[in-house]
User: Fold this.
Amino acid sequence: MLGNFVYCNPTKLYFGKEALEGLRKELPKYGKNVLLIYGGGSIKKNGIYDAVVKILKECGKEVAEDAGVMPNPTSEKVNDGVQRARACKADLLLAVGGGSVIDYAKAVSVSVHCKEDPWTKFYLNMEEPEGEIVPVGAVLTMVGTGSEMNGGSVITNHDQKLKIGHVFGEEVFPKFACLNPEFTFTLPQYQMVAGFYDILCHILEQYLSDFDDNTSDYVMEGLMRSLVHSSLIALKDPKNYEARSNIMWTATWALNTFVAMGKTTDWEVHMLGHAVGAYTNATHGMTLSAVSMAYYRHILPYGLAKFARYAVNVWGVNAEGKSEKQVAEEGLARMEDWMRTLGLAMDLKTLGVTPDMIEGIADATYINEGGYKVLNRQEVIEILKESL
Amino acid sequence: MLGNFVYCNPTKLYFGKEALEGLRKELPKYGKNVLLIYGGGSIKKNGIYDAVVKILKECGKEVAEDAGVMPNPTSEKVNDGVQRARACKADLLLAVGGGSVIDYAKAVSVSVHCKEDPWTKFYLNMEEPEGEIVPVGAVLTMVGTGSEMNGGSVITNHDQKLKIGHVFGEEVFPKFACLNPEFTFTLPQYQMVAGFYDILCHILEQYLSDFDDNTSDYVMEGLMRSLVHSSLIALKDPKNYEARSNIMWTATWALNTFVAMGKTTDWEVHMLGHAVGAYTNATHGMTLSAVSMAYYRHILPYGLAKFARYAVNVWGVNAEGKSEKQVAEEGLARMEDWMRTLGLAMDLKTLGVTPDMIEGIADATYINEGGYKVLNRQEVIEILKESL
Assistant:
């Protein structure tokens, strides 16, 4: 049953080959000072940096820079960014990159006018922002996280070996985002397929919870079918605009709050993946793929009917003459085939996890309560060992 | 292929049994004067009027009223509403009702501060509002039109025998809407099933256009499957909260612009239905159902592959060993069975159309160009005659 909820998503999206032109419509709404936030500099090689700076200049902006945002942005880097935003009196934080860069920009946005330690307040203690929030805009260069249209912000603290996500309210959502599928063409294959799995996993985290009859589940089945279909096209032909544009759009809707409305959700694969990420700094999507099959096979008996529905409606399993369990397992087998075809990390060893890390990763794994089975510590360790 | 587009939908939705409490969060954002807009008075019988007025009073509002909005709101009534809104210096137009009441409130909202004739400017000439727009809020009591989360506003001019819809931009969308599925429980069965068909038809108008590989088509298939499933439950048990809440949510997403992004769309069934509505004042959803089967069978040869996909993915037709045409036709046959089961109007005679009206209705039918076949006048007449 659809529970009570409030839905609001005010982010404005400019989508397509001309998406960057949306900047010209949006920039005049903000003051003069823009902090341009980006990652390791790939945007300087593929021309996106130049194109963005050109528009910023033409719109009369003063541009300060905050480069070097790492794939798993750290609390130390957030402190650095806050100083930069204060120094240039930023009226707008323009994040150019993937989920990490946008997640990071949100962390800075709530911290600029906050006197407390951002990591402690917003991540460790999960408090909400009270003061002024510097608006964030985004130019997306990598799909997967959905950060362009939600309030999610995942930050890592290496000293404490913790990677924590805070889902902020709509006042922290990017005000606008430019989504040009062509900007994702130059992404290395490893990052591309990791993003594909991140998308599927986002949907599954919301789909594999409760047995209610819920419109959202039907919508998620459609999104997953589209993703699987387009991912196989993009794998062979990464510059296929149709496939990449469908994947970009699917990624946004997989995690912009819509499909979770009125539902319970799980998110345990992300909890496992975040713990792995805190220990290894591995690519987010790959930390999810490496633990997924062990996790799903572990919880399958508790969510049998839904796993069987998933098998039929997403993976096209023919249920005739088979038990619910057979159907459900066949669905997971087809999913695993697809994952191997994409070339995802299917075990933790590949990501640098060693047996001596297992206890620590288990300690860092937050246990959620929305899934078909609330894990105990022993189960977490079993799943991690099976994933090694 | 997903074309270029801009997506933004800022409407805030309060959904569920406590949805009306959302009013307490929203009302303080607006000035003191509220124009309460509603229809024939059913909200006085079922207690919704009292509940709304109680909250308005408790929030310290001055309430003026604009009652008697008819099922197909007229341009004359819009002029009346504009006078009322001016007289009470309305800071907020609170529409309590279904699509007609909300469509009407939008027409008033753009006209209060406009000196020109609303019908001529916004509907006949399709101009955009330039001046101040009075904000609209909505309490939904009937589902189908999606008006609670879009800019659509359909107004009828009886003198000119025209029913025209203007799709306004996001500045005209309701600022907020309260969606309590229980508020739809007391709706007469005829109105309920007409709403169900309106929802399916909205989706089909966007689905049955282009042959691109498009994520939106997968999402629409999910929405349609959920709708068909829940509609049969609601038909037998109209107070089934789960079914009614799924249908309410599906209706909103069927027409809040999301599924149309990047796609071409058709809307020819609505053009036919609007022309019928201008001649008969029949219930909107029934004008659509009465002409649908003749229209879809007429365009089927031009959109064969999509009709076949529709048959398999929405109606569960087994395609094995059948031609594409057989599959497509079997899908439409199953759709027709579902329509008859719901008790929809399946011909125009039932709605009061007589053979001598056909030419006039054809003249009033606007020809769209996004469908699988751009109709000529002779085809419009054939379809209307087949629907008689």
Observations:
- Chain A has two domains: 12-183, 189-387.
